[in-house]
Amino acid sequence: MSSSLLILAQAQAAPGGGLQVLVPIALMAGVVYLLLWRPQQKQIREHRALIASLKKGDDVITQGGILGKIYAVSEREVQLEVAAGVRIRMLKTSIQGKRGAEEPAAPTAKSEEAKEAKEEKK
Q1: Cα–Cα distance between 51 and 48 in angstroms, integer?
Q2: Contact 79, 70 (CB under 8 A)
Q3: 33 membership: H or E segment, kind and range
Q4: Which of 87, 88, 94, 110 has the least C-beta neighbours within 10 A?
Q5: Where are the alpha helices (DSSP H) in 14-107?
Q6: CA–CA separation, 79 and 39 (whole Å)
Q7: Do 96 and 80 meet the contact criterion of CB atoms below 8 Å apart?
Q8: For the domain with range 20-98, which CATH number is right: 1.10.10, 2.60.40, 2.30.30, 2.70.98?
Q9: Domain ranges of the chain
Q10: What is the C-alpha separation between 40 and 107, in angstroms, rounded?
């Protein structure tokens, strides 16, 4: 008789136990979405836009690190001129990005000295 009362007391002691388990799981799913899924989807959209905007004469860099100028563009492929008269065919999806405007300028010695002088004054 006492064991059945003990079981009933335990069953009543934890109301809503399933909800307490679901809340942390939902929070973890939200964190995964915000930190992993959303940035990855944004990166995929940007890469698709880059692929769509490729045109003859663009300076590009491939995922393998090859630098070249686009000589011709077809539906799935591009021809890169990597040296005078040397052309290679590549899939458009292998293009990592355009060279030029996106590359950060190398810091000059004057700008580094100015930063150091500002830090010393503080």
Answers
A1: 5
A2: yes
A3: none
A4: 110
A5: 17-32, 38-53
A6: 30
A7: no
A8: 2.30.30
A9: 20-98
A10: 30
